[in-house]
Amino acid sequence: QVQLVESGGGLVQPGGSLRLSCAASGFTFSGGYGWVRQAPGKGLEWVSSIYNDGSNTNYADSVKGRFTISRDNAKKTLYLQMNSLKSEDTAVYYCKNGAYWGQGTQVTVSS
């Protein structure tokens, strides 16, 4: 059974940090992976992508310089390190691989 399971979300103050994880199971951990978020009342927003060996990464302008995507192929896990968080980063964060999506993890940035 193909599964992507996110974790690491929570409540953090502005300027704080969180690291999201996405554990994959049921299929080969290869190819490109990405993070997508959905803020309350808004549509889906692509955040970041990473390709097979991790050397090629891309970021939305809104998170560039603050977020870092990475992967551990041995652990079949994708990460998103989020620093200098802002209230506008509040959203449900999803990891995805092609047609496969995780269930999402809530990130709330608030004082």
Would you give an account of this structure?
It is a single chain. This protein is mostly beta strands and 111 residues long. The protein is 0% helix and 52% strand. Strands 2, 4, 5, 6, 9, 10 and 11 form a 7-stranded mixed beta sheet that branches. Strands 1-3-8-7 form a 4-stranded antiparallel beta sheet, with no helix packed on it. A hairpin with a 6-residue loop joins strand 5 and strand 6. 28% of the residues are buried. The mean pLDDT is 95.
Give the SSE map.
Layout: E1 3-7, E2 10-12, E3 18-25, E4 33-38, E5 44-50, E6 57-59, E7 67-72, E8 77-82, E9 91-97, E10 100-101, E11 105-109
Parallel strand pairs: 2-11
Antiparallel strand pairs: 1-3, 3-8, 4-5, 4-9, 5-6, 7-8, 9-10, 9-11
Notable traits:
single chain; 111 residues; mainly beta; 4-stranded antiparallel sheet; 11 strands; globular
Give the gist of this structure:
Helices cover 0% and strands 52% of the residues.
How many alpha or pi helices? Answer: 0
Strand content: over 45%
- Secondary-structure element pattern, one letter each: EEEEEEEEEEE
Strand segment tally: 11
Question: What is the residue-averaged pLDDT?
Answer: 95
Which regions are unreliable across 5 or more consecutive residues at pLDDT < 50?
A: none
Distance between the termini: 40 Å
The outline comes out as: globular
Main structural class: mainly beta
Question: What Rg do the Cα atoms give?
Answer: 13 Å
- In which range does the helix fraction lie? under 10%
The main β sheet shows up as: 7 strands, mixed
